[in-house]
Amino acid sequence: MVAAPTPYTAFDFLHESSFDAAVLWGADDHAPALSIASGMKRNTRLYHIPLMLYLRGKNEINLGELFHRGFADVASSDTPEIETAERVLALAQSHRRQLTIRKALDSVRSLEIMDPSTGLFTAELFAAHLGRVAEASRARRRPLSVCVLRVREGDAVTLARQGGWLDRAMPQIGAMISRLVRVEDTAARLAKEVFALALPATRGEAARLAAERIAAVIGCTAFDAGPDRSPFVAEFDVGAAELRPDETPGLLLERASTDLFAKVGQL
User: Fold this and answer.
1) What distance in Å separates the CA atoms of residue 89 and residue 95, rounded to the nearest whole number?
2) Out of 13-27, 50-64, 122-136, least confident range
3) Residue closest to 133 by CA, chosen among 187, 171, 83, 70
4) pLDDT per residue over 71-122, tens digit each?
5) SS3 string of the chain?
6) What does pTM read for this prediction?
7) How far apart are CA 177 and CA 181, in angstroms?
8) Confidence of residue 7 (pLDDT cuts 50, 70, 90)
9) Rounded Cα–Cα distance for residues 243 and 256 (Å)
């Protein structure tokens, strides 16, 4: 366990060591804690570390905003210390378990059934998996959402296609997507510049938020565009849809794609 006296040293510790959970002190001004949380959600390696916000008292807080910032739990000095400790340990144990599962899943990324460039599911494998997940969601009466992400057109992307620089960035983009989704989610490469996510037990708007977060993290990364050219960033258009009663997986994916094109038309 490490205690950081300032936000700056906190970021140093987070980048230099591996942690299973983090507790951020809210004090009277939540701004430093919110800033650290936002920074962690823009970093691929720190993205999944669960965060607890610890407050001096029962201040007026917007739990919805804290969730969107990436906090998993909130406690205060009024909360019994044993309960707070148990909650932090539960977050850490869950994170450790997810890392173990992810390590096992990563071991199959090199199989022939996976996309050779990104290590993600192929379109065919994703379609078969989505069918099974849809059946399970109906049986358990739990929601299921699908998101589609497509590289956004722009001058920088057009130039990056020249010489194959966008293609060279795809393995890194695929690896980032695979690390940013939850363990229970499934990421696939549907086409050359199109990706899909299947998110079990997730409502449509929450799924859209997750996909937009992933796109934002990738959008903070600069990719090589060749000699004498500035690095480029890959931004994404996002579409999302939640499974309807008696809807086929194919129609669900089609609605997510339609939503993406509708968003593009509004830009």
Assistant:
1) 10
2) 50-64
3) 187
4) 999 988 888 999 999 999 999 999 999 888 878 777 766 677 789 889 899 9
5) CCCCCCHHHHHHHHHHCCCCCEEEECCCCCHHHHHHHHHHCCCCCCCCCCEEEEECCCCCCCHHHHHHHCCCEEEECCCCHHHHHHHHHHHHHHHHHHHHHHHHHHCCCCCCCECCCCCCECHHHHHHHHHHHHHHHHHHCCCEEEEEEEECCCHHHHHHHHHHHHHHHHHHHHHHHHHHCCCCCEEEEEECCEEEEEEECCCHHHHHHHHHHHHHHHHCCCECCCCCCCCECCCEEEEEEECCCCCCHHHHHHHHHHHHHHHHHHC
6) 0.77
7) 6
8) confident
9) 10
How far, in Å, are 73, 125, 176, 218 from residue 42 at the CA level?
19, 29, 11, 8
**Tokens coding 223:** 């990719």
Q: At 217, list the tokens.
A: 């993290």
Tokens representing 41? 């959600």
